Backbone:
């Protein structure tokens, strides 16, 4: 049985190591909590272990050592059931090309046995929620723009109303204007829905804008976990170097609502 989400973290990493079959160490001694309703951003360069950390949450990977628990339950429960309770949004979107928008969004509710009318109503509700026209429900992914497809991906992740969302650089492949628009939409959605979100990015601007806390990773290790404004002022050498490397973020952050 799931633990009461009001007591303790929703997601917990306890001294987690992950090693590839080749012997390459990807994560080393990761201990990290994700609290209910927050957006925790995993920030770091390529190869820092961000996506591996994300995949350990929904059991796409299992730790070599240590423990990852979701709602107080560690590995051992029905993994399919777990994944259906976690929304997952990736950069490549992963929509089924031969499914309409409606079938893509309604996939998990359909597998869960929802009545057809309830699924149709849920799809229309979600299209409105992510800022898409109801008439797009009958279209196929190739008939949509990149920004529209990414919105459909977010809607699909929300379809069964999961408490947890995992987002792996979901806006990284979009042009700057569309990316800015979807970041705004995400902030608006999160203010209304209060999901527990783990969001992967290598972009400091995005981390400052979207995160309630920023977890900086480097070389498979957790460097620091801080709220955005504290991160900007951190004396940690790696965090300071990251801020200096993305100096433009210092100029834009006050206009992006950081704080």
Residues:
């Amino acid at each position: 049985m799931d633990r009461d989400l009001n007591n303790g973290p929703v997601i917990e990493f306890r001294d987690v190591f992950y090693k590839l079959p080749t012997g390459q160490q990807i994560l080393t001694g990761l201990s990290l909590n994700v609290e209910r309703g927050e957006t925790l951003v995993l920030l770091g360069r390529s190869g820092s272990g961000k996506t591996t950390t994300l995949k350990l949450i929904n059991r796409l990977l299992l730790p070599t050592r240590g423990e990852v628990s979701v709602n107080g339950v560690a590995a051992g429960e029905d993994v399919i059931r777990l994944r259906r309770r976690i929304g997952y949004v990736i950069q490549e979107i992963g929509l089924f090309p031969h499914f309409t928008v409606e079938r893509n969004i309604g996939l998990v509710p359909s597998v869960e046995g929802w009545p057809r009318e309830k699924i149709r109503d849920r799809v229309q509700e979600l299209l409105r929620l992510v800022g898409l026209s109801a008439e797009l429900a009958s279209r196929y992914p190739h008939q949509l723009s990149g920004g529209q497809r990414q919105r459909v991906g977010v809607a699909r992740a929300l379809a069964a109303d999961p408490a947890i969302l995992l987002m792996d650089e979901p806006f990284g492949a979009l042009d700057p204007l569309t990316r800015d628009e979807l970041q705004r939409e995400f902030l608006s959605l999160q203010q209304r829905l209060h999901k527990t979100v783990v969001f992967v990015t290598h972009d400091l601007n995005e981390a400052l804008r979207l995160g309630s806390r920023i977890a900086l990773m480097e070389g498979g290790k957790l460097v620091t976990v801080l709220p955005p404004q504290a991160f900007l002022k951190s004396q940690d050498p790696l965090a300071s170097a990251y801020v200096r490397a993305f100096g433009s973020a210092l100029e834009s952050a006050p206009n992006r609502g950081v704080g």
Q: What stands out?
A: Confidence is low (pLDDT under 50) at residues 1-5, 248-259.
